Amino acid sequence: MNRIRVHDRKRSRVVVHGVLFCAALVLAGGVAAGAETIAITGAKVHPVSGPALEHATVLIVDGRIAAVGAGVAVPAGARIVDARGKVVTPGLLDSSTSLAAVEIGAYEGTTESRVEDDRVTAAFDVVDGLNPWATNVAVTRVEGITRAVVMPGPGKSLIAGQAALVSLRPLAVPDPRSMVERAPVAMVAALGAFERPVVRGEV
Hints:
Elements: E1 3-4, E2 7-8, E3 13-14, H1 19-28, E4 37-45, E5 53-61, E6 64-69, E7 79-82, E8 87-88, E9 92-97, H2 135-142, E10 145-150, E11 159-167, E12 180-189
Parallel strand pairs: 1-7, 4-7, 4-8, 9-10
Antiparallel strand pairs: 2-3, 4-5, 5-6, 10-11, 11-12
């Protein structure tokens, strides 16, 4: 069996940020996660519901979680991620960000999250400005965040526009809209004092 050890470059120790993050690492390494079996073994696993599982295995088959538990058998030929002494969680959600719509906040040329006029811009759709290849998308995914609600930023309007739920997984096709899981998910209004949001992973 092949083994993958995930290292923190700064501390030179094994780190597993999350179940979906581990699958993304395999994709980044040039191996199609959808075409193989991956076993994350020996971890303390926090499932979506229920108590934490000690010394557990997460089995991923063809890009989907097939089994989670302390007694999960690892199939022959599976790729193993040794997570002993580490914590594995489901992917996290950032519920309010301008990620993928803003890359460098100080440079307007990379800001596609707002409309700068004094009209009520309810029709503004943040999806139209998404850039899934923005540097901050990959940085955020490394930290274990796998989904985000991308919000239009405040301009001069009462209504900023429409928000979208997006996936931060690596894209299988070169189409920004393929990262969108649901849109719109909210209408965003700027009421009272409103500071510009901090973009996670912003350069």
